Amino acid sequence: MRNFATTLIIVCFIVNAACKSTKGLADANAGDIIKPVIITDTVQYDTDDPAIWINPANPAASLILGTDKDQDGALYVFDLQGKIIQDKVVRNLQRPNNVDVEYGLSLQGRATDIAVVTERFTHKLRIYSVPDMKPIDGGGIEVFVGETQPEYRDLMGISLYKAPTGKIYAIVGRKTGPRNGGYLWQYLLEDDGRGIVKATLVRKFGLFSGKKEIESIAVDDALGYVYYSDEGYGVRKYYADPAKGNEELAAFGRKGFRQDHEGISIYPVTDSTGYILVSDQQTNHFQIFTREGSSGNPHQHVLVRSVHLSTLESDGSDVVALPLNSTFTKGLFVAMSTDKTFHYYRWEDLMK
Q1: Which of these, 59, 71, 239, 268, is most buried using a 10 Å CB contact count?
Q2: What is the pLDDT of residues 27-52, one digit of tens each?
Q3: Does domain 3-350 have CATH number 1.10.10.10?
Q4: pTM: predicted TM-score of the whole model, two decimal places
């Protein structure tokens, strides 16, 4: 979730959705499979993770970015009708895995929106200005430098955090890592003085069960939390601000998932309330939890409902709580599907 989106929330159109969320789990589970209103053009190899960029001047011209995970992979760019914008596609990426966007990184005094991709086979972050999709990383930024164990440098998850100070951080995951803390590494992104992004390591944090891997990461900018899916175990929660320490604040979603906990996305209803959506990959469901926790405990995230989507084995998603066009008047939820596409859902279809 991005600060830009939070500041633009129009609460009046989501009140109805919040009220409807009080319907029981049985009501949600018993319904028909929810279908997307739009399925994108197919990519060449293997869709993996989407990110939504909101056009501040014209929300109807917003973009969906999505990775095509292959040794000869790409970062695709789609319009809100699901059509590939060919002149914006970034090609020749070596197994791009996840992507995230953030708004207003200062480069030579100019606020620049960015997309950051994890390039697994080169162990690099690839960074592009949005919406023109021009590289601003000097050829890529190596991360997890110094790690020597197998797959400890194979990049997977990425989420960006914009602090109240305006500083922007990248929180990065890999194929595997230590179990006792330090699975995720957090980097401060800054201008190197030439309009090129540099990254400085600021902390290592995050427990790991050792069951499978950690791929999906999501940051709640407004509340200052980072969540990640420890596959087969649950969803872990930490402070996003490195100055607040590395204490684990919560581990939820421990029950009710068949196998893999995957894609995480955060839908705000107000500045402090909303929903956390987590993919139950093998069942084609998304489990929806309270963003604000429970009464008296902001870290007790209660299951609200489970929705069955027609998206196949999704391990990546994103959501915005803004009216974008006549189709997406109450928000847009995007999820990858294993049929080489991304699926666009109306928010109200998930919470009806």
Answers
A1: 268
A2: 344 458 999 999 999 999 999 999 99
A3: no
A4: 0.91
